[in-house]
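Dear H.,

Thanks for agreeing to be a second pair of eyes. The structure we're designing against is below in token form, covering all 274 positions.
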């Protein structure tokens, strides 16, 4: 018989929190002392990892947030650590603990930046968003062949979600004019190539896009700037903006699409980065 997991042993500890602290004095045995203190207060550790150079992030569980307040109070008298954050876990927190570093975010707290070698983290990030039971509108900026489409599809697989291309140049140019009855599902991920839709002269396609934009499901728009210019949306309408580059200094430009070379297949090297 296998030993009980901590969750099975303490099912009442169903309140998750993210705890982050800084090692002021990184002495041997410090993590064990903190773990023991949390355990004695009735706080279980789900996951733990180093984040940044001197910090640790933890996803913890308890049955009463007052126990965490006691931990914070006690830690004020411990010179070895400095509590940085205690809050309900955000997507960014879970990824920091999972991957050992924070994903880059702009001051607007909406725009997240990734490079090609961080696609695994991006897939996890999108997968976590797809799992949220909320209407989400996500924009992805990036040059051709950088991995936008493959990241969206891989994240859908990770989240066990069905994905549907409303417009795309993945295999051939796609402009959906209608959906089958079974394709309307608020658990689906709807993918829109903003360049294709913006350059489309098909009224039925654009009407479908407008309809789906009000549908309570996850929509991911590649090239959101081009999409907004034509469809009269703004960046304020988006919940997340993701920028994906080959390297940090790469500039994202739209000259190719504005010259109407948008019909070229920019993602034929599908999954080439995996």
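And this is the sequence the design step returned. I haven't edited it by hand at all.
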């Amino acid at each position: 018989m296998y030993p009980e997991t901590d969750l099975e042993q303490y099912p009442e500890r169903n309140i998750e929190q993210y705890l982050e602290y800084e090692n002021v004095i990184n002495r041997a045995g410090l993590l064990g002392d903190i773990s023991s203190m949390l355990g004695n207060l009735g706080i279980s550790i789900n996951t733990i990892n180093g984040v940044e150079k001197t910090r640790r992030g933890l996803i913890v569980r308890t049955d009463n947030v007052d126990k965490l307040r006691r931990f914070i109070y006690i830690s004020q008298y411990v010179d070895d650590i400095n509590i940085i954050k205690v809050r309900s876990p955000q997507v960014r927190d879970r990824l920091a603990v999972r991957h050992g570093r924070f994903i880059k975010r702009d001051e607007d707290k909406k725009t997240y930046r990734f490079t090609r070698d961080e696609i695994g983290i991006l897939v996890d990030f999108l997968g976590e968003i797809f799992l949220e039971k909320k209407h989400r509108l996500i924009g992805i900026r990036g040059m051709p062949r950088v991995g936008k489409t493959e990241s969206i599809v891989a994240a859908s697989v990770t989240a066990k979600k069905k994905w549907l291309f409303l417009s795309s140049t993945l295999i051939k140019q796609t402009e959906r004019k209608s959906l089958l009855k079974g394709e309307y599902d608020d658990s689906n991920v709807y993918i829109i190539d903003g360049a294709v839709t913006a350059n489309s002269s098909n009224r039925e396609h654009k009407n479908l896009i407008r309809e789906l934009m009000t549908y309570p499901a996850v929509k991911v728009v590649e090239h959101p700037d081009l999409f907004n210019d034509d469809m009269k949306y703004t960046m304020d309408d988006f919940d997340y903006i993701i920028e994906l580059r080959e390297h940090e200094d790469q500039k994202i430009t739209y000259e190719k699409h504005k010259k109407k070379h948008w019909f070229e297949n920019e993602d034929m090297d599908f999954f080439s980065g995996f």
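Two observations from my side: The chain is about 30% helix and 25% strand. The longest helix spans residues 119-131.

Warmly,
E.
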